[in-house]
Amino acid sequence: MKKIEVFFDYNCPSCLKGYEQLIEFMRGKPHLEILWHPCEIRVFKNEPGQTDIGLQGVYFAADNNIDLWRYHERIFKMVRDELYNNDINNFINAFDGFLNTRAFRHAITTGKYIARLKKSNHYAFKKTGVHVVPTYRVDGGCLQDRQEFYGLGPSDTAYGGTK
Known about the structure:
It is a single chain. The chain has a single domain (2-151), classed as Glutaredoxin, CATH 3.40.30. It is globular. A four-stranded mixed β-sheet has the order 2-1-3-4. It is of the alpha+beta class. The model is unreliable at 155-163 (pLDDT under 50). The protein has eight helices and four strands.
């Protein structure tokens, strides 16, 4: 099974468009596996800020067997509706009835997933060399354009690794 690594940040407007294109691309391709790598582009840019709640929530969703596609769909709806921010109460309202909001609040307020997000940031920005989001990697190389993406083959000069 071919695996596509997806590096993304909900705070990036291009990631919403990339997510929509990924949904379109994945139709009829059950043989592909997506490995989601939330990462904070502000960390790469050395900008201050709080650790992102939505990105931490990716790990909560995974740990609680919540469909990640549906989780992303909810988050990107918040982005489209201009409701995405780092306010825990905003997230609780958006996810009421979708996930255990009490457990979600507890995980976020105790910082349960901060170390995992930091590890993902390190993997993205230090180990693989990702410097923009969204970034898609296959077979150790970065897909730089639609042709490579639809052909699922990185070029030899791709940033974020080579073939």
